[in-house]
Structure formats: structure tokens, C-alpha cells
Amino acid sequence: MGARVTRVFRTFNVENRARREISKEKPTPAPRHPTARLDALANRPEIQEEISRKDDRLLTLLKDVYVESRDPPKQVKDQSVQYLPCKHEEKRLTKLGHLDALDVKKVPKGKISIVEALTLLNNHKLHPHIWTAEKIAEEYSLELKEVTSLLEFFIPFSVQEFPTENRKAI
After folding, report:
1. Which GO terms describe its biological process (predicted)?
2. How far is Cα 109 from Cα 92, in angstroms, rounded to an integer?
3. What is d(CA 152, CA 140) in angstroms, rounded to the nearest whole number?
4. According to the 3-state scheme, what is the secondary structure of the chain?
5. What's the number of CA atoms in the CB half-sphere (13 Å) around residue 95?
6. Residue 137 lies in a domain
7. Which of 131, 120, 110 is nearest to 154 (CA)?
8. What is the rounded average pLDDT of the residues 23-49?
9. pTM over 0.85
């Protein structure tokens, strides 16, 4: 509904308004600064003389320069494929239990996979006296500070199933 109202005002007297805008005189542009014109400078004889004059001091310096170039020795291309150099990261095998089909096999040192993270969080939750932060850091090649932060801020969920006879009571 609002579009119809705005369209009426937008199209009202369009032709007259367009003619009025077209018939207006165009504003004159601002005058340019006299040094901004290069063609006025190019016609001056002093500048032309300066351009065509040879500088003897620069010519003697140029004559002293001697460049000797040699092509590098041609190398016979080997048939083997040459790979670009890349940064080799030290990797470790993952420590997985029954979920090894779901996860990656090798992880860079200092990092863990998602399955490993869930496993170590669950182990720490079930046996905190055995799976301490120091043991986890040593086992998974992690920094102790990162492991303590991981154990502090990430807690796995615990699923509780209630027996059928207690469901009615709940």
C-alpha cells in the first residue's frame, strides 16, 4: 500500500521537472592553477634547452659503468619430479581406541584431534587422579598451560538414563 502512495509522488510532474533540470545552465568549472598546465611549460625555450642539453659529468659517470653478464650454466633437467620446498611438521600417530575409523591418523605435535580431545576429557572426568594435566600433556605432546586451560573450560556432557520404573515418578 505504501509503495503505491510513494509512486504517485515520485511520478508526479516528471516530464516538467526533467525539462527544468535539462534547461538549466551548466555551472562553469573552477579555474585551474597556472602551474598545473604542462603544455604552457613545454613551450618555454628554457625548458626545451634544459631537456636537450647534455651533462658532461653524468656522461663520464655513465662511461665508467661496465656491465658484464653471463648466462648461468645450463642444468640438465632430471626426469624425477621436483617438488616445491615445504615446511615439514613433526607429526605423531594418534592415540585412539575404538573410534579410529572416524578420525585422522597423524596429527602435528602440539595439537590433538577432536576424538582425542573428547577421549582425554572423558578420561580426566572419570579418573582425575590418574589422568592429571601433567600426564595428559606428556602423553599427547601438548603444553601444560594449554592442557590446564582445556581441562578447566571444556567439560564433556554426561548422559544419564533413568530406569523405566522411575520415569513415572519423575
Report:
1. mitochondrial respiratory chain complex I assembly
2. 6
3. 17
4. CHHHHHHHHHHCCHHHHHHHHHHCCCCCCCCCCHHHCHHHHHCCHHHHHHHHCCCHHHHHHHHHCCCCCCCCCCCCCCCCCCCCCCCCCCEEECCCCCCHHHCCCEEECCCCCHHHHHHHHHHHHHCCCCCCHHHHHHHHCCCHHHHHHHHHHCCCCCCCCCCHHHHCCC
5. 14
6. yes
7. 120
8. 75
9. no
Total domain count, the chain? 1
**What type of residue is 91?**
K
The pLDDT of residue 90 is: 62
CB 105 within 8 A of CB 120: no
DSSP lists the bridge partners of residue 49 as none
Closest residue by Cα to residue 113 from 131, 96, 127? 96
Strand partners, 93: 106
Rounded Cα–Cα distance for residues 105 and 158 (Å):
27
pLDDT in tens, 54-104: 888 888 988 888 888 888 887 766 656 566 666 666 666 566 555 555 556
Q: How confident is the model at residue 146 (pLDDT cuts 50, 70, 90)?
A: very high
- Structural domain containing residue 123: 91-153
